[in-house]
UniProtKB/TrEMBL annotation:
Entry-linked Pfam families: Kinesin
Cellular component terms per the entry's GO annotation: microtubule
Organism taxonomic ancestry: Eukaryota, Metazoa, Ecdysozoa, Arthropoda, Hexapoda
Gene designation: 100145908
Residues of the Kinesin motor domain: 279-606
Family: Belongs to the TRAFAC class myosin-kinesin ATPase superfamily. Kinesin family.
Xref: InterPro entries: Kinesin-like_fam, Kinesin_motor_dom, Kinesin_motor_dom_sf, P-loop_NTPase
Name of the protein this chain belongs to: Kinesin-like protein 14A
Location within or outside the cell: Cytoplasm, Cytoskeleton
Source organism superkingdom: Eukaryota
Natural source organism: Bombyx mori
Entry-linked Gene3D superfamilies: Kinesin motor domain (3.40.850.10)
Keywords noted in UniProt: ATP-binding, Coiled coil, Cytoplasm, Cytoskeleton, Microtubule, Motor protein, Nucleotide-binding
Amino acid sequence: MSKIPKLPTISKENRFGQFHNRPISRTIANGLSDVDKKNLITNHTRPLRNGPPVSAAAPRIKRSATAPSSTTIPNNVTKVEKRSTVAPKIPPYDFKARFNDLLEKHKKMKSEFTDLKDKHLEVSDEYEKIKETFQSCSNERDILKANLSVKTLEYDEIKVNFDVMKTENEDLQRKTKLLEEVTFSLKQKSFELDQVQTDLNSLRRRHSSLQDEAEALRVLTDQLKKKCIEYDKLKLDFTEAQENIIKYKTDSEALQNILASMYKEQRDLRNAIQDLKGNIRVYCRIRPPLSIEVTKPLFNLNVVDACSIEVEKIELLNSARKTKPQLFTFDGIFTPHASQEDVFAEVSSMVQSALDGYNVCIFAYGQTGSGKTYTMEGGCGTEQYGIIPRAFNMIFTCMEDLKRMGWELTIKASFLEIYNEVIYDLLNPSKDQENHEIKMVNSKGGDVYVSNLKEEEVKSSHEFIRLMIFAQRNRQTAATLNNERSSRSHSVAQIKIAAINEKRKEKYTSNLNLVDLAGSESGKTTQRMDETKHINRSLSELSKVILSLQTNQMHIPYRNSKLTHLLMPSLGGNSKTLMLVNINQFDECFSETLNSLRFATKVNNCRVVKAKKNLCMVDT
């Protein structure tokens, strides 16, 4: 609260007794209006009735917003302020003092009014600004509400679509699972149906025979009393029938022994013929151009006879360089018109050797895009099947004949690949695989095996096809300049055959290795140098091993590469080997074709130890 200034002290001439004798100052009278002068005279000249006149209280001035609160001021200071705020009483006869007091109050009220008016203008400006801000915020709020409603509708629609898609996905997963279960159950039911059909046929035969016997017994029962005389004759006939049955059993056993001996002689003759042909046999297959490759230039390739071909590069007419045709001879030539069935007809004898108990290896060699994978695995449809699926169909077909002769066979299959000198299990879909190492079966023999390799027992050709397709998906492939989908690793399909004959007390085990080598490729035609270096290095080591075998060296560098180490029993051990060299007739591939044919010639000139059958007696 602002302090009221003290009034001036009353002098002798301002006393009550001398008031009416002193004239009023004109300067003070001239500063007031007529209405103020009248009110002032009326209020100050009003006679006192109930007591002395009381001066009007000064108007209260609002506390400033920045004034300190009373709690922060000491008590003694507060008391002093209270004492100082009390104005001294003005005597009722001192009109000048009263008038001065009123002037001071009027000035203060006028200044406060001016301050309040200024504050009112500031507050009005702020109010207008806040009002405009509020209006803009209201507009933004309306826009946001409209956007929120639109987004809410979109969210609801997306949520409904998500629920529908989720339901469809769950339905598809359930149908897929149900389809897998139905497929598996159908396979089982198909196998069970074959067994039931066999049992039904045997039961039908027995039923028909029992019906005939029942009819005969019925007739005999009706005629028993009439034909008592013929009893002795029937008894003699029965005795003769028993003797015939014993004779037929003896003849059946003799025929089975003759059949077994004939099968053994046939097997020995078949393997003797293969031994005469050589334990390492080489065939050449010429890939026909595809429909999109018809316009590519070709070099001269002449099939001289069933076992020889000539190749010659076509030179320009004005070129001074001339090349002579080069002749290559192998165990057989497959022309571009040869089908998959024609190729397997020559290979089937090697598969039969595996069924006879010999270790067999069949591998395809050639540059990228020459048709190795098609030769080994084939395409879609039974007519396009390659060597691997046809070999398995043949094995299961021969299993039925072997079962009739008393043999029980167990087939196990495994698939692996050698990619950048690392062995991967193609039946294991996990990326983090265990280490696979090539180890010797024993210290004496030359057979090897791969550790931590998954083997699946196969009971039908359909199961093997399923495993082969699964392994194909896990194999490393990539696009090259020569092939859109080129194999970038060496693939090996291993089939282990275990057979036992309890009656003859014999058993044998054999391995059938079907190898699809990665394509040889020069550094100028590849975009994946790291893979190409490993592939060419392993094929180069394979060439060194073939050269060492051809020159009868003491040390054969099998362990320089995972590929040669794995093929060690097939190249120089107890195994029969067949190599298919694949070539194409494109002019741009002439140098690689020559390299493949020269390598195949080296392999064909190798002479290895005669393969032995893995036969042993069953422990009793």
